[in-house]
Structures are given as C-alpha cells and as structure tokens.
Amino acid sequence: MLGRVDIMNFIDWFDFPKSLSLAAFCISLFSLYFSGARSQLARAQEARKLPNLVLNLVHGQFQQGDAENGRLYAFKLMVNNRADNRNAIAAAKLSVTYLTETRILMKMVLIATDLPKTGFLMQEGQTLSVPIEVDAHNSVAGWVYFHAAEGLVKGKHIEQYELEITDTHDKVYSVSETFLKEVRGFEA
Amino acid sequence: MKPKKHQLIPASSPEEARAIPIVADAAIATQAIGHGRLVPLIILDTSNRPDMDEVINAQEHVLNGELTVQWGAFPKRQDHFALILCFQHPIERTAIIEFNISKQGSIVEQIFQAGAIYLQSGRVGDRLKHDLDRPKMLVDVGVTGAKKFWDKIYFADLVKKMRRNGLKKSEARVRAQEYLKVLREIGSLRV
Q1: Is A105 in the same domain as A167?
Q2: Which among A87, B20, B40, B167 is least surrounded, fewest beta carbons within 10 Å?
Q3: DSSP-derived pairing of the beta strands A132-134 and B39-45
Q4: pLDDT at residue A188, rounded to an integer
Q5: What local confidence, expressed as pLDDT, does residue B71 receive?
Q6: Predicted local confidence at residue B99, as pLDDT
Q7: Is residue A188 in a domain?
Q8: ipTM of the complex
Q9: For residue A70, is it within any domain?
Q10: What's the mean per-residue pLDDT of chain A?
Q11: Is A134 in the same domain as A86?
C-alpha cells in the first residue's frame, strides 16, 4: 500500500510539462555550449588562414663598389608562413633613413634587384627573386639584393635600414637594422 | 564611386604640408620623351625645401621612380588648384605645388594636355635658359579624373576674367570657349 501511495504522490508531484521544459532547457544549454565551442574552433581555423608571415633577418651586409657600380646591399632572409594557406612575397624594399650633408632626415627606398650588379661578390646560397611563393607552414630562405647608385649614397650619413616585404594581400612585414657589415673584395 | 571630398596627405614634417612656390615656367618638347609633346616645366623655389633638391637629384640615378599623383583644391582658397605629389622611390617625400588659376591656369591646362610635367629646383630669378643641364624630374601625371573638375573651374575663371573686362555673360562664355580652343591647339603641337 505504501508503495502505491508513493507512486501516487509522485504522480501528483510530477509536472510533466515543467519537467519537459527543464529537460529542453538543459539540452539547449548543452547545445549552446557545443555551438559556442564549434564557433570558437571555426574562428580559430579562419584566423589560421589569414596571411601570417614572419620575417627573420639572418644576415645583412653591403659592398661598396667604385663610382660606376655604386653600393650593393645583401640581406639573408628567412620567411616563415604560419598560416594554413599559401602566400607569396610580392615585393621587397629596403628603406634607408639618412641625413643629408645639410642635416635633413630623408628616407630612400630601394627595390630588390634580381641579380647583383657585376663587380660584386655573389653570396653563397639561394638568391630570392620576387615574387616568391611560400607554402603553408613552410619557410623560404635566401639572399635579397638591393642596388644603390653611387650618387644616391655618396656623402650620406645612414641612420637606419628597414627591410620590408609585402605579401600578395598587401600586408607589410618589416625588420630594422642599424649596423651593417661592409664586405670587401670584388670579382675581377 | 563618388570621389572623396577630403583626403589626408602624408607628410613627415610641417614643411612638407606647405605648398612650394613656383618661380618660373617653361615648356620642353623633344622627340625622345613623350613623342614630341610639349611638356610644361616649372622651377620650384626650394630655398625652404632643400629636401626637394635631394628628391629631384636622386631621380637622376634611377631608371624609374615611383610616386602617386593627386590634384586638389583648397576650401579657403578657391582661386588655387594644387598638384600633390607623393614620391615613393627612390626618396619618400611629399610635395604640394599650388597654381593660381588666373595666373598659372595655362600651365595646369598644359599638364593635363601633355599628361606630364618637368620639375626643376631653383631660386627666385632662375630661368630654364640659365642652365639647361640642371637636373629635371619628369613626372607622369596620367589620368586622375580631375580633368572634368578642372575644365569647369578654369572655364568659370576665364568667364569671370572676361566679364571683368566688360563683356556680357553670353559673350564672355563664347570668348572663353574660343580662348580654350586656341590654347589646346597650341598645347597639342608636337615637334
């Protein structure tokens, strides 16, 4: 009899619509949590697809030629692509901040040249010639050359060098260098 | 797309934001450059802008430079028209060249006609004939979309000038059109 009373009490107490709505609420909370986690994951995946190159300057130097040859800047770069998508380096520039003889601060922009001018020593290793493709989660390394005519650098007090690369999405990555080593010795 | 009414001009120093005065003008036509087109030349007074001497001289050492060209007008000086040059390679600098529409309108008209302009640095009193070998920078102005605005502004200025000389409005418009026609014919001469 007692058991029957308990069941009856329970049936009296049990409110089916309320319980159903409570269960639905719990399920919707779970669903909200999982959809939030899924959206976070999707956002993280999308963020990994965004262009994300990392520019590392391994080595930088210059060679001073005669009046005809001017000056050749050589930079060994390593570019890492941290994104899930392929990317490419569309342009490489060297900004040289300098003081003129009349003490005016100016900025000279040199564009990467394909091959070093004759009369300069070639560096050991691959020459990077823009555009350069960089696969997803991969790296490229090599030398980039910038030539400056004698008239552009003669008598200039150089303050800083800034190496800039631009990817195909117009995103600019840069690295600065204040001192560069001069390399002597030229090809015959 | 509707063109923007106002735009910021990149300037790294207050000097760059000031217009560079024009001290003289001339025109050069050679077969070697621009297929014999009559390209206007302006001599800029760079006594307060020695950086522009550097920009013009540096251009001699590179095959091709890079720059962006923009025409502009000033809300408070409606009788002026400006050429804004943002040099990018080999030297990064900005130059604003201001033209008085009444006095120097024909130079602007010729820049649009030739699609280019020579820039030379100098001082007050300098003329092209004084030193033909001074470094000159050829700026390819190209098509910027400013021509239709310029045509309206210049025509209105010519009409105003002719009305000041006693002509009726309708007559002044006819004379202004004739003047522009002759000016453009002269400007289109090639050597």
Answers
A1: yes
A2: B167
A3: unpaired
A4: 40
A5: 92
A6: 94
A7: no
A8: 0.76
A9: yes
A10: 87
A11: yes
Asked if B186 contacts B37 with a C-beta cutoff of 8 angstroms, the reply is no
CA nearest B88: which of B67, B73, B105? B67
B61 and A149 within 8 Å at the Cβ level: the answer is: yes
Q: Is the pTM of this model over 0.90?
A: no
List strand residue ranges (DSSP E) for chain A, in order: 53-64, 71-81, 87-99, 105-113, 132-134, 139-148, 157-167, 172-177, 181-182
Give the closest of B12, B58, B88 to A152, CB-based.
B58
- List pLDDT tens digits, range B134-157: 999 999 998 888 899 999 999 999
Residue B149 covered by a domain: no
Domain match, A23 and A100 both: no
How many CB pairs below 8 A link A and B? 42
Q: Which of residues 46-105 of A touch B (CB under 8 A)?
A: 93, 95, 100, 102, 104
Q: A87 with A130, same domain? A: yes
Full domain range(s) for residue A95: 53-182
Q: What does each C-alpha distance from B157 to A58, B4, B170, B171 come to in angstroms?
A: 60, 24, 14, 14
B4 in a structural domain: no
Confidence of residue B4 (pLDDT cuts 50, 70, 90): low
Find chain B residues with C-beta within 8 A of A102's C-beta. 50
Report pLDDT for A6: 73
Range of the domain at B113: 14-143
CATH of the domain at A133: 2.60.40
Please tell me which residue of chain A has the smallest CA distance to B54.
Answer: A100
Alpha-carbon distance of B30 to B140, in angstroms, equals 15
Q: B 61-120 residues with CB below 8 A of A? A: 61-62, 66, 88-93
Work out the average pLDDT over B41-63: 91
Q: Which residue of B has its CA nearest to A110?
A: B90
Looking at residue A2, its pLDDT comes to 56
Considering the domain architecture, whether residues A95 and A45 belong to the same structural domain is answered as no
In a domain, A187, yes or no: no
